[in-house]
Amino acid sequence: MGETMEFITILTTVERDLAGPISEKILATRAGACVQTLGPITSRYHWKGGIEAAEEYILLVKTTRDKFAEVEQVIRELHTYEIPEIIALPVLEGYLPYLDWIRRETG
Fold first, then answer.
1. What's residue 5's pLDDT?
2. Is the dihedral of CA 10, 11, 16, 17 positive or negative?
3. Is residue 43 within a helix (H) or strand (E), and if so which, with residue range?
4. What DSSP assignment string belongs to 64-78?
5. Count of CB atoms within 10 A of residue 36's CB?
6. What residue ranges do the domains of the chain occupy?
């Protein structure tokens, strides 16, 4: 299991118009091996004293831990939210040929 701990999936939510540009820049800079776009979803959240609702899309970035800062930089550079969601989830297990592919594509 130790070998897989270097792999993460980074999750962020974005407006529809940002899904393509953020995904493309992450891939162009090789900060991630794959970016999946899911949605639309409806997010409901507390913001500045009220409860808001927004249609968003989820980006799932398949990458390695050492690329987190690069992915975060791309998201922060292009995102329009004051505080964008940028969280990393560890990969606890994975198909080794797939993990090797992530390592190659982000290396």
1. 74
2. negative
3. strand 34-47
4. EGGGHHHHHHHHHHH
5. 11
6. 2-106
Compute the distance between CA of residue 34 and CA of residue 1 in angstroms, rounded to an integer. Answer: 22
* Mean pLDDT of each 10-residue bin along the chain, 107 residues long: 78 98 98 98 98 98 98 98 97 96 95
pLDDT for position 1: 45
Q: Write down the pLDDT at residue 73.
A: 98
- Cα separation, 10 vs 51, whole angstroms: 25
Q: Which two tokens stand for residue 104?
A: 């190659």
Angle between the N-to-C axes of helices 16-28 and 68-78, in degrees from 0 to 180, rounded to the nearest 10: 140
Closest among 100, 99, 70 to 10, alpha carbons compared: 70
Query: CATH number for the 2-106 domain, one of 1.10.260.40, 3.30.70.3400, 3.65.10.10, 3.30.70.120?
Result: 3.30.70.120
